[in-house]
């Protein structure tokens, strides 16, 4: 009887040794950089060591909108369908009111690893849903947080926002530093020098830019609102590329912890994890297409606004409809480049027609 109990007690130890061997083999394979199985092994390592920790950390950032029902857990195949996200870059310094410095309507196509970013300049003049007034679109966040920003963007763009994700710019600095810096295409020194602005200089031509420089890059506003919006798209693209280049699964918990209170979303943690693994296992790197709705500067009662270009709004809606449709093949996706090509062709045909008439 005593001998049997001894054998019974020894069994868990044997199981622990077996599990330790499996983990050791997985670590050795990943460390050796097995090319053909690198991505599946990375996902296996994530599931073994990190998924529970990451999901627990993401719970801190999970914040369903007030008055809207929390999303239930969807089957993985449902999570892979195209969906829209309102990306909000929130600028809050010290005790100042929070402002949405960046507003981007994004369409994510997980199976194609493609993302469409439609940027809406912060000074765009539109109806603020819930305030019964027209104002700068970024004021919606100041008036009513993520919910009013979501409702206002839905009304402006004409399509639903499935989810939102808001990050405080203060958190950007720490995340970039944790990644070891980020590559930015700065070919000329950027100098913030106006009397009422924070003073800084970002030197051109550096291989990597640290968190403070990256934050200043997205905040710089002394050229135009349009250029600033384009810089936000460039920065997001650079961040994605940097994360993929690092290819270090072990960085994930650190990045999640750094985001902490600086990040809020109503995307359930399990869905974020499923999407991340889909990208990791995909054959292609994520491709980002960016489009900015242009506007014409106007003054009303002494206040400057951007009046959105109706052609741009119409084209943005056409792209969004095309990208949200799960039946649209990747090769048939409408992109900003396709519009430029169409314009060039129209101008060429017009020029040829004029030349023919002159003959």
TrEMBL record:
Compositional bias (Basic and acidic residues): 337-346
Pfam families per record: LytR_cpsA_psr
Cell envelope-related transcriptional attenuator domain: residues covered: 99-244
Region Disordered, residue ranges: 327-359
Compositionally biased tracts (Polar residues): 347-359
Family per similarity comment: Belongs to the LytR/CpsA/Psr (LCP) family.
Descriptive protein name: LCP family protein
Organism in which the protein naturally occurs: Paenibacillus mellifer
């Amino acid at each position: 009887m005593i001998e049997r109990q001894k054998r019974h007690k020894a069994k868990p130890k044997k199981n622990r040794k077996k599990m330790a061997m499996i983990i050791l083999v997985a670590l050795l394979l990943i460390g050796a950089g097995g090319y053909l199985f690198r991505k599946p092994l990375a996902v296996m390592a994530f599931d073994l060591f990190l998924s529970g920790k990451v999901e627990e950390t993401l719970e801190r950032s999970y914040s369903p909108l007030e008055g809207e029902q929390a999303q239930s857990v969807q089957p993985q195949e449902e999570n892979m369908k195209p969906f829209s996200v309102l990306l909000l870059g929130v600028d809050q310094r010290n005790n100042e009111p929070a402002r949405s410095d960046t507003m981007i309507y994004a369409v994510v196509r997980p199976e194609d690893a493609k993302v469409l970013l439609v940027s809406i300049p912060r000074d765009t003049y539109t109806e603020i849903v819930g305030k019964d007034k027209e104002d700068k679109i970024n004021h919606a966040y100041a008036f009513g947080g993520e919910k009013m920003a979501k409702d206002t963007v839905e009304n402006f763009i004409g399509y639903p926002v499935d989810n939102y994700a808001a990050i405080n710019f203060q958190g950007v600095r720490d995340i970039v530093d944790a990644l070891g810096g980020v590559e930015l295409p700065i070919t000329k020194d950027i100098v913030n020098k106006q009397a009422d602005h924070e003073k800084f200089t970002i030197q051109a031509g550096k291989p990597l830019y640290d968190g403070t420089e990256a934050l200043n890059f997205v905040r710089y506003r002394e050229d135009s609102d349009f250029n600033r919006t384009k810089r936000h798209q460039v920065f997001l693209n650079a961040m994605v590329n940097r994360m993929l280049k690092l290819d270090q699964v072990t960085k994930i918990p650190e990045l999640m912890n750094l985001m902490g209170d600086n990040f809020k979303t109503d995307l359930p943690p399990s869905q974020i994890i499923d999407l991340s693994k889909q990208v990791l296992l995909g054959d292609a790197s994520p491709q980002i297409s960016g489009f900015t709705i242009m506007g014409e500067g106007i003054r009303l009662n002494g206040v400057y606004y951007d009046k959105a270009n109706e052609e741009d709004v119409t084209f943005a809606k056409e792209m969004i409809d095309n990208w949200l449709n799960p039946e649209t093949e990747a090769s048939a996706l409408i992109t900003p480049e396709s519009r430029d090509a169409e314009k060039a062709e129209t101008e060429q045909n017009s020029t040829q027609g004029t030349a023919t008439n002159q003959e």
